């Protein structure tokens, strides 16, 4: 949350010289998965934008990204966005 130009996108994504929070977390996640000898750990990603209190699914194809989405806090699952796109990923590069 913050006004335009306050550095939100830079903090989250970074730039060519410095990674932001999201790339660092993803790298850390996949690095820790190297120690999973069972191979059962799977990763799915979702990517949303909240702008003017409107939630947009940034991974959806076509007009589906413009559908109205709601955010809920589930007592056990945490933050949930029903209907959001979930894409399986197997590496940092994906």
Automatic annotation (TrEMBL):
<keyword id="KW-0547">Nucleotide-binding</keyword>
<keyword id="KW-0206">Cytoskeleton</keyword>
<dbReference type="GO" id="GO:0072686">
    <property type="term" value="C:mitotic spindle"/>
</dbReference>
<keyword id="KW-0505">Motor protein</keyword>
<dbReference type="InterPro" id="IPR036961">
    <property type="entry name" value="Kinesin_motor_dom_sf"/>
</dbReference>
<dbReference type="GO" id="GO:0005524">
    <property type="term" value="F:ATP binding"/>
</dbReference>
<dbReference type="InterPro" id="IPR001752">
    <property type="entry name" value="Kinesin_motor_dom"/>
</dbReference>
<dbReference type="GO" id="GO:0008574">
    <property type="term" value="F:plus-end-directed microtubule motor activity"/>
</dbReference>
<dbReference type="GO" id="GO:0008017">
    <property type="term" value="F:microtubule binding"/>
</dbReference>
<dbReference type="Pfam" id="PF00225">
    <property type="entry name" value="Kinesin"/>
</dbReference>
<feature type="binding site">
    <location>
        <begin position="2"/>
        <end position="9"/>
    </location>
    <ligand>
        <name>ATP</name>
    </ligand>
</feature>
<keyword id="KW-0963">Cytoplasm</keyword>
<comment type="similarity">
    <text>Belongs to the TRAFAC class myosin-kinesin ATPase superfamily. Kinesin family.</text>
</comment>
<keyword id="KW-0067">ATP-binding</keyword>
<dbReference type="InterPro" id="IPR027417">
    <property type="entry name" value="P-loop_NTPase"/>
</dbReference>
<dbReference type="GO" id="GO:0007018">
    <property type="term" value="P:microtubule-based movement"/>
</dbReference>
<dbReference type="GO" id="GO:0005876">
    <property type="term" value="C:spindle microtubule"/>
</dbReference>
<dbReference type="GO" id="GO:0051231">
    <property type="term" value="P:spindle elongation"/>
</dbReference>
<feature type="domain" description="Kinesin motor">
    <location>
        <begin position="1"/>
        <end position="94"/>
    </location>
</feature>
<protein>
    <submittedName>
        <fullName>Kinesin heavy chain, putative</fullName>
    </submittedName>
</protein>
<dbReference type="GO" id="GO:0090307">
    <property type="term" value="P:mitotic spindle assembly"/>
</dbReference>
<dbReference type="InterPro" id="IPR047149">
    <property type="entry name" value="KIF11-like"/>
</dbReference>
């Amino acid at each position: 949350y913050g006004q335009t130009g306050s550095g939100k996108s830079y903090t989250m994504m970074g730039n060519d010289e410095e990674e932001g929070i999201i790339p660092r977390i993803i790298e850390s996640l996949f690095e820790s998965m190297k120690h999973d000898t069972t191979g059962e750990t799977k990763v799915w990603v979702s990517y949303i934008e909240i702008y003017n209190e409107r939630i947009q699914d940034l991974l959806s194809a076509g007009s589906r990204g413009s559908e109205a989405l709601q955010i809920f806090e589930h007592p056990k699952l945490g933050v949930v966005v029903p209907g959001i796109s979930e894409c399986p990923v197997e590496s940092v590069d994906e």
